[in-house]
Amino acid sequence: MEEGRDLGGLTKVVHLLVLSGAWGMQMWVTFVSGFLLFRGLPRHTFGLVQSKLFPLYFHISMGCAFINLWILATQHTWAQLTFWEASQLCLLLLCLTLAAINARLLGPRTTAAMWALQTLEKERGLGGEVPGSRQGPDPYGQLRERDPKYSTLRQVFFRYHGLSSICNLGCLLSNGLCLAGLALNLSRL
Q1: What is the pLDDT confidence band of residue 6, given thresholds at 50, 70 and 90?
Q2: Which of 11, 34, 35, 142 gets the most CB atoms within 10 Å of its CB?
Q3: Can you say whether residue 136 is alpha, beta or left, with left for phi > 0 and alpha for psi between -120 and 50 degrees?
Q4: How crowded is residue 164: how many other Cβ atoms within 10 Å of its Cβ?
């Protein structure tokens, strides 16, 4: 494809489908499935499911961001980019970067910390309950108070989990802004 040439119809459809599909997947994983699974599954089962879903989710997000970035980068003459085109390229590059950080760095470290926590919890008979189902004192709070190793591991887990969540929200926002821009410029598409 020549630089600066207008996208063909099929390429436009692929761009729109990949971007909207990625955003829909991100919305579902971020705001629906995680909360439903957390409320309905035993704690360790939830962790197992998430440890299988998230690597695939992060890599799909990364692939979608790469495809969309490639489609847009090859269609424009760089010296003649409009503000919106440059913004969209920057947003997609940000999404690709954040998804890659999640897929290659934060996701594996979060999962490793989770497995270490679960090992300590299993040794004490914890992890089989559905969150919110237990009455009385919090056994995880008691474990944190009594076991400094568990407390430290928990801090590591939540640090990586928090950073991963921020990266995920950055991708979600980037793709949402790209979709909003496309919707506002449908006549130019």
Answers
A1: low
A2: 34
A3: left
A4: 21
Place of tokens 């590059």: 93
Q: How far is the C-alpha of 110 from the C-alpha of 174, rounded, in Å?
A: 23
3-state secondary structure the chain: CCCCCCCCHHHHHHHHHHHHHHHHHHHHHHHHHHHHHHHHCCHHHHHHHHHHHHHHHHHHHHHHHHHHHHHHHHHCCHHHCCHHHHHHHHHHHHHHHHHHHHHHHHHHHHHHHHHHHHHHHHHCCCCCCCCCCCCCCCHHHHHHHHCHHHHHHHHHHHHHHHHHHHHHHHHHHHHHHHHHHHHHCHHHC
Residues, the chain, total? 189
Dihedral sign, Cα of residue 93, residue 99, residue 105, residue 110: positive
Q: State pLDDT tens for residues 113-125.
A: 999 999 999 999 9
What average pLDDT does the segment 81-106 reach? 95
Beta carbons of 86 and 73 less than 8 angstroms apart: no
Q: Are 44 and 118 in contact (CB under 8 A)?
A: yes
